[in-house]
Amino acid sequence: QVQLVESGGGLVQAGGSLRLSCAASGRTNSNYAMGWFRQTPGKEREFVTAIRWSDRTTYYAESMKGRFTISRDNAKNTVYLQMDSLKPEDTAVYYCAATPAAVGASNYARAISYNYWGQGTQVTVSS
Questions:
Q1: How far is the CA of 24 from the CAs of 14, 43, 96, 109, in angstroms?
Q2: How many Å apart are CA 63 and CA 72, to the nearest integer?
Q3: What's the chain's average pLDDT?
Q4: Is the pLDDT of residue 29 over 80?
Q5: Which pLDDT band holds residue 28 (cuts at 50, 70, 90)?
Q6: What is the CB neighbour count within 10 angstroms for residue 3?
Q7: Would strands 10-13 and 121-126 be described as parallel, antiparallel, or unpaired?
Q8: In this predicted structure, what is the pLDDT of residue 88?
């Protein structure tokens, strides 16, 4: 069992930055991939980015490249999502998730691939 707790959400003006954190505990090891997704009311969860814990390989949704950066801190068992140049359309609940890395990189962008989810953190970008 893996527990994930997100933090760092809040209200920010357009053009600003936020850094989200996802602290993992429980049966965590290097054989996981960690992902960030976001969701707005009435829509499906949207893939943002993922990182393979073992070798730090990163994956991004095309529309997120350049503004969002995922990273991880081994010592703290924490994954970060740095979000820059935020836009009102980035407003959403952001979730982190974990999946065995063995599901394969082609599946990291699929929410159904993930076994464990955090509770989500709200990000609101004002115009």
A1: 30, 26, 10, 19
A2: 21
A3: 95
A4: no
A5: confident
A6: 14
A7: parallel
A8: 97
Q: Which amino acid is at 20?
A: L
77: alpha, beta or left? (left if phi > 0; alpha if psi -120 to 50): left
Q: 127: which 2 tokens?
A: 């115009």
Could you tell me the two tokens for 79? 């994954």
Tokens of 24: 């993992």
Q: What is the pLDDT of residue 113?
A: 96
Instruction: Please list the residues that pair with 95 across neighbouring strands.
Output: 37
Tokens 């990273």 belong to 71
- Per 3-state DSSP, the chain is made up of helix, strand and coil in percentages (nearest 5) of 10, 50, 35
Say if residues 22 and 118 touch (Cβ distance below 8 Å).
yes
DSSP assignment letter at 2: E
φ, ψ (nearest 5 deg) of residue 65: -65, 140
Q: What digits encode the pLDDT tens for the residues 69-102?
A: 999 998 999 999 999 999 999 999 999 999 998 8
